[in-house]
Design a protein that fits this description.
GO terms for molecular function: mannose-6-phosphate isomerase activity; zinc ion binding. This is Mannose-6-phosphate isomerase. Its cofactor is Zn(2+). The chain is mainly β and about 325 residues long. The protein has two domains: about 210 residues, Jelly Rolls, CATH 2.60.120; about 80 residues, Sandwich (Jelly Rolls), CATH 2.60.120.10. Helix content is about 15%, strand content about 40%. It contains seven helices and 22 strands. Strands 16, 17, 18, 19, 20, 21 and 22 form a seven-stranded antiparallel sheet that branches. A six-stranded antiparallel sheet has the order 2-3-7-14-9-12, with no helix packed on it. A three-stranded antiparallel sheet has the order 11-10-13, with no helix packed on it. Strand 4 and strand 5 form a beta hairpin. The longest helix is centred in the middle third of the chain and has 9 residues. The protein is globular. The protein starts with 7 loop residues before the first strand and ends with a strand.
């Protein structure tokens, strides 16, 4: 049976800070309130996404990885990761600010949690006026001065805050303290991991549990990178109908495609699956004599065995292209 481009049924995640933009802007149709995350493509244990349509409808990402191996993942990816799909793709709607947090790298995550670390990136799709992102520190700290800020409830005073708008992109490597601010809707590309160390959570009480959420300051202390960067926002080109380099790391590569005309793609040389995330507009994907629709807020996985395809715009659109 030949693999084809795969769309999955998203998994909704309640979050204390979640809102309703996943439904109102991305048409997810989730039930309930405070839907903070839509897990689009996931191989996290217990949260494996299922194919929503086509020959493989109902099969999980894990089942497909086990069955098709390098045909799904690519030879180099399968050699590195085996049946474990290496990326997790989400949409995140922060009606309220997220906790101040940090993620561990692979070695610590493996030792403490038997999982991958969590390098990630954000692409902002929608932002309220004056919406902000917290990323990194304003000034250089060491462990002693950092702990003093925590103890004196002054951590927010030393964090770097950036005004944000649609189209902004941020690299969030492990060790970098960060938080999504209120009023931000974004796409997140990350390693397959659900490990987060919370540092500060505004003393909030979760309505579902009636308790403050757990903090992980002892675990976080060995993870945090205190160096200050000149800028945390990624700059990139915006040429039409080509792959503009966005954020490339050892863990994933991402490009922005501004689609105003037909784009022909040949992935023969990359030896990897490809993921498309539609962040604006509506496109069609033509592959192996079939057409697949992709609207804003939808994600599709192109197996490594599908080497050539075309992207056809129904209207001016933006697509994030992701691969290893």
């Amino acid at each position: 049976m030949q693999l084809h481009p795969l769309k999955f049924t998203p998994i909704s995640k309640y979050r204390i800070w979640g809102g309703n933009k996943l439904n109102t802007l991305l048409n997810k149709g989730f039930e309930g309130e405070m839907n903070g995350e839509s897990w689009e493509i996931s191989d996290v244990k217990g949260d494996e996404t299922l194919v929503s349509e086509g020959l493989f409808a109902g099969k999980s990402l894990k089942q497909l990885s086990q069955e098709f191996k390098e045909k799904l993942l690519g030879n180099k990816v399968y050699k590195a990761f085996g049946d474990e799909f290496p990326l997790l793709i989400k949409f995140i709607d922060a009606e309220k600010p997220l906790s101040i947090q940090v993620h561990p790298h692979d070695e610590i995550a493996k030792e403490r949690h038997d999982t991958f670390g969590k390098n990630e990136m954000w692409y902002v799709m929608n932002a309220d006026n004056d919406a902000e992102i917290i990323v990194g520190f304003k000034k250089e700290l060491d462990k002693k001065s950092y702990l003093q800020c925590l103890e004196n409830n002054q951590i927010l005073e030393v964090l770097n805050t950036v005004k944000t708008k649609a189209g902004d992109a941020f690299n969030i490597p492990t060790g970098r303290v960060h938080a999504i601010g209120a009023g931000v809707l974004l796409a997140e590309i990350q390693q397959t991991s659900d490990i987060t160390y919370r540092i500060y959570d505004y003393n909030r009480v979760d309505a579902q549990t009636g308790k403050e959420r757990e903090l992980h300051n002892e675990l976080a202390l060995d993870v945090i990178t205190f160096e200050v960067e000149d800028s945390y926002k990624t700059t990139y080109e915006t040429a039409e109908n080509t792959s503009n380099k966005l954020i490339h790391t050892p863990y994933f590569k991402s490009n922005v495609l501004i689609v105003t005309d037909v784009i022909s793609k040949d992935y023969s040389q990359i030896d990897s699956f490809v993921i498309y995330i539609c962040t604006e507009g509506f496109v069609k994907i033509a592959a192996d004599n079939e057409i697949y629709q992709l609207a804003m807020g939808e994600t599709i996985l192109i197996p490594a065995s599908v080497k050539k395809l075309q992207i056809l715009p129904e209207k001016d659109s933006k697509v994030i292209e992701v691969y290893l």
